[in-house]
């Protein structure tokens, strides 16, 4: 099976559905880094992943609180980070990031730039970008997960 692939979603529902599909391939301890500009659809994809993991909570970006914690019957803890406001690896370490990483839950990270050296080598990377022609369309490249 392919471990790297790209897909285009035509609307928000398709992006969420892709997240649900991604969730079906996850295993305990997986770390997913989501790259993309503001408004590119990272949180929508996370919403779908959480839905696929059986999480019924409202899923919003934790921009101001840095991390949302959810519970999944299958995987235990799911941690959703938004590291946009953190400016260095030291700030990320100071907030206890390594404890979350060592907890064997699922870790979802928006804006992972300053945390890259702290991530496992086998982490999954997802790059999302807008279509120029259609603001609802997303191009999504997934690295490190079987299709």
Q: What does the model show?
A:
It is a single chain. The chain has 147 residues and is α/β, with parallel strands linked by helices. Helices cover 23% and strands 29% of the residues. The protein has helices spanning 12-23, 42-52, 89-94, 97-101, and strands at residues 4-9, 31-35, 67-72, 76-82, 106-110, 124-130, 138-143. The chain has a 7-stranded mixed sheet, with helices on one face. Strand 3 (67-72) and strand 4 form a beta hairpin. The chain is globular, with a radius of gyration of 14 Å. The mean pLDDT is 91.
- The CATH topology is given as Rossmann fold
* Strand residues, percent: 25-35%
**Succession of helices and strands:** EHEHEEHHEEE
Low-confidence regions: none
E-strand count: 7
Derived structural class: alpha/beta
- Structure annotation, total helices: 4
Percent of residues in helical segments? Answer: 10-25%
* Strand line-up across the major sheet: 1-7-6-2-5-4-3
The end-to-end distance, rounded to whole angstroms, is 6 Å
Number of domains: 1
Secondary-structure arrangement, i.e. CATH architecture = 3-Layer(aba) Sandwich
Mean pLDDT: 91
Classified by CATH, the class is Alpha Beta
> How large is the radius of gyration?
14 Å
Overall 3D shape: globular
Major sheet description: 7 strands, mixed
